[in-house]
Amino acid sequence: MSPRKLIPRKISSPPKIKGFKPYGVSEDLEKSEVITLQFEEFEAIKLCDYDQLNHCNAASVMNISRPTFTRIYAIARQKMAKAMVDGLQISIEGGKIYFDSDWFQCSSCPSIFDHPGQNEDPEVCPVCGCKNLKKYSPEIKSAPLDRHCHKKEKRV
Amino acid sequence: MKIGISSNGFHFESGIDKRFARCTCFVFYDSETGSIEFLPNPHQHLESDAGKKIAELMVQKGVSKVIAGDFGVKIKPLMDLNQIQMIVYQDDKITIKEIIDQLNHYYKP
């Protein structure tokens, strides 16, 4: 039986860097092992420790369940701890993810487009070069971000 | 920069295809040289995971933007992962020639 399919994790923006290198190591860095931190694990650390969200809210931001989030977060911490203790490099790459990008609509041609991997909004339409853009909001809205825990809802 | 366009035929008078991964033909437009390449979609009749194969093809061709009449639900994560911009062109009547004229007008003034 094949394993269950992974639900793609939503990432708000790609990390600014590709990884970390330890300093003050006597051995040759090129030869040492590299820890691969996946994008979703990076995002979990970012949401939980940098943005200080709880696991429930962070899970809904990433569009995954709370247990899945906790699992990803645990793996991320395990990997970071291993890299720190053993003095290994960290490379941030891979993972089943998609970026949460906004969609934009051009006012002079019938095109709608996204802008993956960039934090800034696009300035011109990629088809006609028109500068008059507006944000496109489809009718179907995604789940609200401040969704509560299912457990809490049951208790009330 | 290369732009991939989904087409429902093999010539300039064909229209833009409503499907992306299962379109009839891909047109690759190179904005630097203005060159145009028609490539019949090798994965058009694939039963499943056509999107994955097409994403690989797009990466292999070095495409950074794709234009189609519409996209399937599964393609967005694949395109995002490879940082390919998706452009939905909501006009079925437009021909490949017209769209290339527009791109030429913008990228090669």
In words, what does this structure look like?
- The complex is a heterodimer of chains A (156) and B (109).
- Chain A is 29% helix and 18% strand.
- Chain A has helices spanning 39-50, 55-61, 66-86, 150-155, and strands at 9-11, 19-20, 34-37, 89-92, 97-99, 103-106, 111-114, 133-136.
- In chain A, the strands form 3 sheets. A 3-stranded mixed sheet of chain A has the order 2-4-3. A 3-stranded antiparallel sheet of chain A has the order 7-6-8, with no helix packed on it. In chain A, strands 1-5 form a two-stranded parallel ribbon.
- With 109 residues, chain B is of the alpha/beta class.
- Helices cover 28% and strands 26% of the residues of chain B.
- Chain A binds chain B through residues 8, 96-99, 101, 109-117, 126-129, and chain B through 3, 65, 67, 76-77, 79-81, 83-91, 99, 102-103, 105-106.
- Strand 7 of chain A pairs antiparallel with strand 5 (85-89) of chain B, so a sheet runs across the interface.
Characteristic terms for this protein:
heterodimer; A: 156 residues; alpha/beta; Arc Repressor Mutant, subunit A; 3-stranded mixed beta sheet; 3-stranded antiparallel beta sheet; 8 strands; 29% helix; B: 109 residues; Nucleotidyltransferase, domain 5; 5-stranded mixed beta sheet; 28% helix; globular
Instruction: Note poorly predicted spans of chain B.
Output: none
Strand order of the largest sheet of chain B: 3-2-1-4-5
Q: Please write the string of helix (H) and strand (E) elements of chain B.
A: EEEHEHEH
| Number of spatially distinct domains of chain B | 1
Separation of termini of chain A? 39 Å
**Reported CATH architecture of the largest domain in chain A:** Orthogonal Bundle
Biggest sheet details of chain A: 3 strands, mixed
- CATH class (first level) name of the largest domain in chain A: Mainly Alpha
Provide the succession of SSEs of chain A: EEEHHHEEEEEH
Q: Give me the secondary-structure category of chain A.
A: alpha/beta
Strand percentage of chain B, roughly? 25-35%
**Widest beta sheet: strand line-up of chain A:** 2-4-3
Number of helical segments of chain A? 4
Biggest interface between chains: A-B, 19 and 22 residues
Return the average pLDDT of chain B rounded to an integer: 87
Radius of gyration of chain B: 13 Å
